[in-house]
Write a structure and sequence with these properties.
261 residues, seven-stranded parallel beta sheet, three-stranded antiparallel beta sheet, 8 helices, binds 2-phosphoglycolic acid
């Protein structure tokens, strides 16, 4: 696992966007796993800027959704499909056909979950999966004590996540759907490169557990320790709980350029 400490969220977004642009230079039709929430927005902004100035070729990229609320009507502005159409597909000028995601409105949810899990593999697998981290250590919507081998399935959100996400629903926790579809931890670990971005001091404790704690289902993000190519990008505030911060800074400062992200 590589941990990169950046000054702030904007610098983190630019670093990750450059990493994605590099991937697209080698593999223009890469399947990019995209996350929602506030954290990845600077990545999408930086990527749009690179695309506008001809430094990222988004013409063949495909994108895959990480998770989705269950039960929001199709087209609801806070469904993750709507958020990604608004924040990623539109600004990057992608075709909606290049975008795959689970169906949170399906009547038969277990079948929809299994179908999405298979569709990811049939699409060749995710090349780079962008991840946020919940204050409770979740990745995707894999809440604490999710199986580290889990596949795409339905989960019930913790009270902490419901409270964290109420800001997207007029501050009303009762409007946040209780149930979600999420790629499982086992599914996420199949992506070729995992890039977890965390910003703000509210994430410091979860980041420290994920990076320096034991691999344990109680902190789902700790599963990244099992992945051969995982990059954790944190701003100074989110790095606040890392014991090895000095080492991480030293390693990154001395990293050979050819290694990329
Ligand atoms: P946030 O969400 O980026 O809105 O903090 C992160 C997450 O829940 O994965």
């Amino acid at each position: 696992m590589e941990v990169v400490i950046v000054p702030d969220a904007k610098a983190g977004g630019e670093l990750v966007a450059r990493g994605i642009a590099d991937l697209l230079r080698h593999k223009p039709h890469a399947l990019l796993g995209v996350a929602t929430g506030s954290t990845p927005l600077p990545v999408y902004e930086a990527l749009a800027a690179l695309a506008r100035t001809g430094r990222a070729d988004m013409s063949q990229v495909r994108i895959a959704q990480l998770d989705e609320y269950v039960g929001l009507p199709s087209g609801h502005p806070e469904s993750y499909r709507s958020v990604l159409l608004r924040e990623v597909v539109g600004p990057l000028g992608l075709s909606p056909e290049a975008f795959m995601g689970p169906d949170g409105t399906a009547v038969d949810l277990p079948t929809a979950c299994a179908a999405y899990d298979s569709a990811l593999a049939e699409a060749g697998g995710v090349d780079l999966q962008l991840l946020g981290i919940g204050t409770d250590g979740h990745i995707g919507f894999n809440e604490p004590c999710s199986s580290l081998a889990s596949r795409t399935r339905i989960k019930t959100l913790t009270q902490q996540t419901l409270a964290d996400n109420a800001r997207f629903f007029d501050g009303d926790v009762d409007q946040v759907p209780q149930h979600v579809i999420t790629q499982g931890i086992g599914t996420i670990l199949e992506a070729r490169h995992l890039v977890l971005l965390a910003t703000g001091k509210g994430k410091a404790e979860a980041v420290a557990s994920a990076v320096e704690g034991p691999v344990a289902a109680v902190c789902p993000a700790s599963a990244l320790q099992m992945h051969p190519h995982a990059t954790v990008v944190v701003d100074e505030a989110a790095a606040g709980g890392l014991r090895l911060a000095g080492y991480f800074r030293h390693a990154y400062a001395n990293k050979p350029e050819w290694q990329g992200l």
